[in-house]
Design a protein that fits this description.
By secondary structure, the chain is an alpha+beta fold. The chain contains 14 helices and 19 strands. Strands 1-2-6-3-7-18 form a six-stranded mixed sheet, sandwiched between helices.
Length: 466
């Protein structure tokens, strides 16, 4: 007789026998970077050769669509409908990766080769996102095998190949295919746990807002000996402008950028006691940095941050004796749904003018990914938490939104689904740099957690439809 424990045993055996590692090795070997020209065929190959046959063996109807926006990667959709009266879960993932950065990986490692060292699997896409969506599909396969090819519920899937370029085209695609993608909830995986050892559910993501600050005073540089001390240095003006926007300890001074009513009570409640940590090799958590009066969890999951991603004046690689003609900084705001990005540029313009920086221009402001959040007490969120805790035998931390950016807003806006993100990675995984890796123990837990959820989805007790 098929049992939940039997499905979990199947999944564990698949992982422990090395079959999941072999699967991930094949996926990583496809250099499906979306950020380098010349790799476009690999985006199609990942879907056509690695994913499509696997899904069809599990009984999915699969289609691969061109991106609605020219120049961006294709989008795969799949559905497996057993009974329209039963719940339908929408899975999401992305098979594209950032640049390989081949020459930057340390000796013995390469981006398109899976390498096991200690408790880690190294390779591009192991954490972001091949390893994560592959765990979820492998878990589904284990449940189908235990139940003799039946799930007791319905599954749909969207797998895009342009997430690392801002999910360009996904919004237009989901809007055009909303009826066929309709579901009761989105349950998917990307991003990090709060700490490597703590299973996590995120109910949304922070948004990302970008802009350039530019000070351009002349057409070319002028001799530093003849003009230094007489003519304005744009780098100094830019540095002073930035220091007016954030103080020495990382507190944002453009207060109109921040959540108007502070951290909501519901968010504070779910973050009470929430740990924060990146694991070995991650950046430090500096207690004095950021908004005073907030816990580390509230700073990263319930508040906004300003980051200067890049600054340039003159030629740092080959300095010359000149007062530079201009200076530029590319900045990013990570923001929660409690803030209004439509007000960000006007608020900054008013701030700069009030602080004596009319010559500092704001250029190229845009939202790269919008913020999203489902109520942490939503029935589907609590159902997932209970299922995971039953499987893993340990507490599962709920956070109101992950610290990074994901296109959850697309699915909320066009499908109206609650968001249940179950990350399998951690903050120190180096996902956008060299030496990206997936921790083996959390990956195994993730496989088991999803196996339990797939099993429970086919049982009584799921949240009501709609």
């Amino acid at each position: 007789m098929p049992t939940r424990e039997g499905a979990l045993t199947r999944a564990a055996s698949f992982f422990d026998a090395g079959d999941y590692k072999a699967l991930l090795t094949r996926l990583v070997a496809i250099p499906s970077t979306a950020q380098e020209p010349g790799f476009e065929p690999e985006l199609d190959r990942y879907l056509q050769q690695a994913i499509r046959p696997w899904l069809e063996r599990m009984g999915f109807q699969v289609a691969i669509h061109p991106n609605p926006l020219e120049g961006f990667g294709p989008i795969l959709t799949a559905e497996r409908i057993e009974d329209p009266a039963r719940p339908t879960v929408l899975l999401y993932g992305h098979g594209d990766t950032v640049r390989g950065l081949d020459e930057q990986w340390r000796a013995g490692l390469a981006p398109w080769t899976l390498t096991e060292e200690g408790d880690r699997w190294y390779g591009r896409g192991t954490a972001d996102n091949k390893g994560q969506h592959a765990l979820n599909l492998a878990a589904l396969e284990a449940v189908l095998a235990e139940r003799g090819g039946r799930l007791g519920a319905n599954v749909k899937l969207v797998l895009e190949m342009a997430e690392e370029r801002g999910s360009k085209g996904l919004r237009e695609f989901v809007a055009a295919h909303a009826a066929e993608l309709a579901a009761d909830t989105l349950i998917a995986s990307d991003g990090p746990r709060v700490t490597p050892e703590v299973p996590t559910i995120a109910t949304g993501t922070r948004g990302t807002y970008h802009f350039d600050l530019v000070v351009k005073l002349r057409e070319g540089g002028v001799h530093s000996g003849h003009w230094g001390g007489l003519t304005t240095d744009p780098a100094i003006i830019l540095a002073q402008a930035l220091s007016s926007m954030m103080d020495r300890n990382g507190r944002i001074l453009v207060r109109d950028w921040l959540p108007g009513n502070g951290v909501p009570a519901a968010v504070r409640g779910v973050l009470a006691g929430c740990p924060v940590g990146g694991g070995e090799g991650a950046a430090s958590i500096d207690e004095g940095w950021g908004e005073p009066g907030l816990t580390p969890a509230e700073k990263i999951y319930g508040w906004n941050s300003l980051i200067v991603l890049a600054m340039l004046s003159g030629r740092p690689e080959n300095p010359v004796n000149a007062v530079a003609p201009d200076a530029r900084a590319h900045c990013q705001i990570r923001y929660t749904v409690d803030s209004d990005p439509a007000r960000f540029e006007a608020a900054l313009r008013a701030h700069l003018d009030a602080h004596g920086f009319p010559e500092v221009r704001i250029e190229g402001a845009f939202v790269r990914m919008a913020a999203s959040r489902t109520d942490p007490d939503h029935p589907w969120v609590r159902w997932a938490q209970e299922s995971m805790q039953r499987t893993l035998g340990k507490p599962v931390q709920i956070i109101p939104n992950s610290s990074g950016g994901l296109p959850g807003d697309v699915f909320v806006d066009h499908l109206g689904v609650p968001l249940v993100w179950v990350p399998h990675s951690y903050n120190g995984c180096k996902q956008h740099g060299p030496d990206e890796h997936l921790l083996i123990a959390p990956a195994r837990e993730g496989l088991l957690a999803f196996t339990g959820m797939w099993w429970d989805l086919g049982e009584a007790g799921t949240p009501g439809r709609g």
